[in-house]
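Deviation from plan, reported transparently: 5-S-methyl-5-thio-alpha-D-ribofuranose complex.
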Amino acid sequence: MTAYEPFTEQTLRQRLAGVPAVTDRLGRDTAAWAVREVGDGNLNLVFAVTSPQGALIVKQALPWLRVVGTGWPLPLNRSFFEYSALTRHAARDPGRVPQVFHFDEAQALVVMRYLSPHVILRKSVVAGVQHPQLARDMGLFLARSLFRGSPLALTGQQARAEMALFAGNWELADITENLVFSDPYVEAKLNRHTPGLEQWVDRLRADRDMKVAAQAMKQAFTTKAETLLHGDLHSGSIMVTAQDTQVIDPEFAIYGPMGFDVGMLLANFLLGYFAQSGHESGPGARDGMRGWLLGTVTETWEVFAAEFAHLWRTERTGLLHERRLFEERGDTLGAEQALAWVLRGVWTDAMGFAGVEMHRRILGLAHVEDLEAVADPARRVVAERRALACGRQLAVLRETLQTPAQVCDLARRIEMENLA
Ligand code: SR1
Ligand code: MG
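Because the crystal trials were delayed, the predicted structure below was used instead.
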């Protein structure tokens, strides 16, 4: 076995020349391969490799955090967890994640489908491009991946084995625990924020209700091992075309609360919503985009809830909420009552997670292009103030916000507030 070594555009050909899964698709003439390192994420190397015969993505983990450097070491085994999550997602929601052609644990390497002409969803949101199929695809993905990875579908033995396996990814969970739930609310070293937000940041860090809410969500993330999470489901982890949606990058996969993936995703739609004022060419020019983003919040949840209910009624063969307690005793209503209770918990958690995600993308280390790409600092700061205000309401009022319509009303009201 060759020792781990980060690939370069120069070494990749030679390192993969003997891998049949690669040469079957690109051909044996490695001189005809074009190799480009295209990674723009925070963590990894990503190579696009094309040849006259085909194309592949080669993703390799680095032993440190790419955006920070060698001073922040990271485990290579995240590649194993990404591969393990991708194969499970492929089985649980077929066609929604890129096909894996080759995995090399020693090189922390996953070779997978080259998605083309897909673009990163976040870039579409910034550019003002709508994707009508997105909410349906993501609602279904959330329901299928979260339900089928949970003890609602798995036996106790299967669920415990899966939890134990993914518990090995604790170092990535540790990043989330710090960057999402704690650092934004203190003066952490790598935090940064837009000048002009100081007063708002100070107010949030002194906000006792908000800090209690953030820590309640951290406790839920760390202790509620309900299902296999994607773990980093933001608009940079989704690639789209006009017809297709692909979910990528599950290297933060871990067992956790169902509401985490749901809330992260909805938060990123809301961040996109508040960022629109920074990108519009004139007042109202992005109204259509704003409407689509709020519609996407609502439809994603509605599709998720409907598909989850369908799976509950047809595939609930695991450890939890056994049919022998309900349907097999003629108590269908009892099963429906339990379903409503589970969905209510997912929704409430999702609100809390959405709130902290919105905050950390403005106050923490890892920001989002939606807001970073706003050229006018004055417009950016207003958009960020609105997103901070919305995040605070979602997290603190998570028990009282009952429906997506209430969330959309809240977002619309905050968007109209003069926070200059
Ligand atoms: C230190 S890694 C920063 C962020 O990038 C990833 O995409 C995750 O969102 C993580 O929190
Ligand atoms: Mg990622």
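The CA atoms of residues 212 and 396 lie 8 Å apart. We consider this an acceptable substitute for the interim report.
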